[in-house]
Amino acid sequence: MSNSDFDIIFRGDIVFGHQLTDVKLRLQQLFKADAAKIDSLFTGRPVPLKRNLDEVTANKYRDALLKSGAMVELYPSDKSPANAPVTPRPARAREPESSRWTLAPVGSYLSPVLQRPPQQVAQIDISGLSLRPAEGNLVDSIEVSQEIDAVVIVPDLGLAAIGEDLIGADEKLELPLVEIELEDWEIAAVGSDLLRQEERPVVLPTAVANSDFGLAPAGSDLGQLKPNIKPITPDISKLRLAE
User: Fold this and answer.
1) What's the domain count of the chain?
2) Which range marks the domain in which residue 71 is found?
C-alpha cells in the first residue's frame, strides 16, 4: 500500500448508462451544494473534488462517486493535472486547433447559443386550404378514380341439405376390397397381454445413483443457491466540495 497522497479529479464525464440530470442531482445531495455550483464542475477541465487523501480513503470516495454516475480519476497529489501550471501564450501566436478542443459533457450542446445558426421559420401558403364538413368524402367526385368492375364467373352451385354427401354416387371412386386372412387370428381374453413373453423386447434397466438427490420442500426455489452478499453503504459524511 502506497503512502502517497491522492487527489480525486473530475472532468465532467459521467458513467455510461446514467443520465446527466440524474448525476447532477446525486452530486448535489453528496456535496450538499446548489445546482449552480455543480454545473460549474462540468467544464471539461480537471477539477479536484478532494485533495491529499490516503489511498484507502481515496478509493472509497471514488467508488461512491462512480456509483452516483460521476466518472472520476485518482492522481498522486504531486502529479495532479489540477496543479499543472498554465503557460501563457504570446498574444499573436496562433494555437493549434487540437489544443483548444475539450470534451463536452454528455447531453450538452456542442456549440454556444451565439454560435448556432439562426433557425428560419418556413412560410407555408395555406390560403387555398379549407375545412370540409364533418361528414362526407375529403375529395370531390371528379377526383375519385373510376374503378373497373371485376367480372366474376359463378358456376352452377347449390346448397346440399344437412347430412347429405357432398358428392354424388356417380362421382365416388370405386376402391378395391382388401382381402385379409383371418384364420390365424383370435380374440384374447379380457385383461390378458397382447404379446407373448417371447415376443416382448428385452429392456435393460438403467442404473441411476440417487445418493445426491433430495426432495425439496413445497414452494422452495430449485435454482442455484444465491450467495449472501451484504450491500455496501459507503461513508460520505466527510465528502465535501473542494474550494
Assistant:
1) 1
2) 19-83
